[in-house]
């Protein structure tokens, strides 16, 4: 998390982040209760490995919280993992 935040800040982006509950929807809800949020960014494993994508998490979060959701999906490594 820290590396990703530092990388984005290095690009001039104003960004904050937190590690939350293991249930992603509850984690989003917890953050939204503490401060205003403009956009939710969900970072996932590659599509073939991501439980969040298979569970349609981005669309569920967008519908539930009525905020724009951006999904950042990791590329598959050359070894296929």
In terms of quaternary structure, the protein is single chain
Please bin the fraction of helical residues. Answer: 25-40%
Ranges with pLDDT <50 over ≥5 residues? Answer: none
Q: How many strands appear in the DSSP assignment?
A: 2
Tell me the fraction of residues in β-strands, as a range: 5-15%
Alpha-beta content class: alpha+beta
Overall, the morphology is globular
Radius of gyration: 14 Å
List the secondary-structure elements in sequence, H or E.
Answer: HHEHHE
Order of strands across the widest beta sheet?
1-2
Structure explained in plain terms:
It contains 4 helices and 2 strands, in the order ααβααβ. The chain has 81 residues and is of the alpha+beta class.
Fill in the keyword field for this structure.
38% helix, two-stranded parallel ribbon, alpha+beta, 2 strands, 81 residues, globular
Task: Set out the fold topology.
Blueprint: H1 2-10, H2 24-32, E1 40-44, H3 51-54, H4 57-65, E2 69-73
Parallel strand pairs: 1-2
Summarize the structure in short.
With 81 residues, the chain is of the alpha+beta class.
